[in-house]
Amino acid sequence: MSKHDSTRRSFLARAAVGAGAVAGSGLVLDVYTQTLDEHKNEVATPGQPHPTSVQHGAFFNYDQATMIAAFTERLMPGAPGKPGARDAGVLNYIDLALAGAYADLQDLYRRGLAQLDAYSRTTYKKPFVQLEATQQDEVIASLEQGKASGFSWPTAQEFFNVVRTHTMEGMFADPIYGGNRDFSGWRLVGFPGAQGNFTPVDLQNKQIFTRAPATGLQAQAGLQAQVKTSGRTE
User: Fold this and answer.
1) pLDDT value at position 28?
2) Spatial CA neighbour of 109 closest among 184, 52, 163, 173
3) What sign does the dihedral 4-188-17-35 (CA atoms) show?
């Protein structure tokens, strides 16, 4: 993993720790909602029908899914022993969110991805997913700095900020929301999850908490379902 990748990973991990680790969904910033309201009368780019194949997802079509997978992996690249966006299932988190709680951001993603790919093709003569990692980083940096041409709504920076926020959510939210697979994000930053109890030693310890994350909401829901099923069959 390059020094650039390591720096980016460290930044997002520190941000997650500073926020106490993302515990849930619903973290759309007001600026994004305001931007959507300002453009709600625009004619949105026609979206393709929601595919039913698990390979495509609940909202994204195949091309959109591969772009988001590549984009988020460059934001949070994996390394040996250190999970990245692909390992944590960030794509799945964003896909499910856009089909549900974040449905109001569907057009933002459609238009943002279309503009991103157009910029990539204009600049490098290739679609975003076919670029080398260093080229993808350059494209993403252009978005972050607002230098990418061809963006109207969302602007390049708006789209970058939305995807980065959702990448962090997908890495560090409870696995019930579709990301943080196998608690990989929590393990990365040493977040213990919802432990059943902390011993007096735990409470006094000033070192990084190393115990494995406790059962999350997703597993708890599954356990409750098993108990109910067991109760019906007895």
Assistant:
1) 35
2) 163
3) positive
pLDDT at position 86, please? 96
> Phi and psi at residue 151, in whole multiples of 5°?
-95, 130
Taking Cα atoms as reference points, which of 48, 44, 46, 45 lies closest to residue 61?
A: 48
The span from the CA of 148 to the CA of 42, in Å, is: 22
Give the start-to-end residue ranges of the domains of the chain: 3-191, 194-234
Tokens found for residue 1: 């993993």
The pTM for the full model equals 0.70
Residues 6+ apart with CB under 8 A from 218: 174, 175, 176
CB-side neighbour CA atoms (13 Å) of 193: 26
What distance in Å separates the CA atoms of residue 141 and residue 45, rounded to the nearest whole number? 25
User: Is the Cβ–Cβ distance between 178 and 195 less than 8 Å?
Assistant: no
Q: Lowest-pLDDT range, 33-42, 157-166, 177-186, 218-227? A: 33-42
What residues contact 116, with CB distance under 8 A and at least 6 apart? Answer: 67, 71, 128, 139, 143, 148, 159
Q: Which residue has the tokens 């195949």?
A: 62
Q: What mean pLDDT comes out for the span 164-174?
A: 96
Total length of the chain: 234
Pair of tokens at residue 77: 């690249």
Question: What is the model's pLDDT at position 129?
Answer: 97
Instruction: Give residue 221's pLDDT band: very low, low, confident or very high (50, 70, 90).
Output: low
Contact 142/148 with Cβ under 8 angstroms? yes
pLDDT of residue 202: 76
- Residue 65 confidence class, pLDDT cut points 50, 70, 90: very high
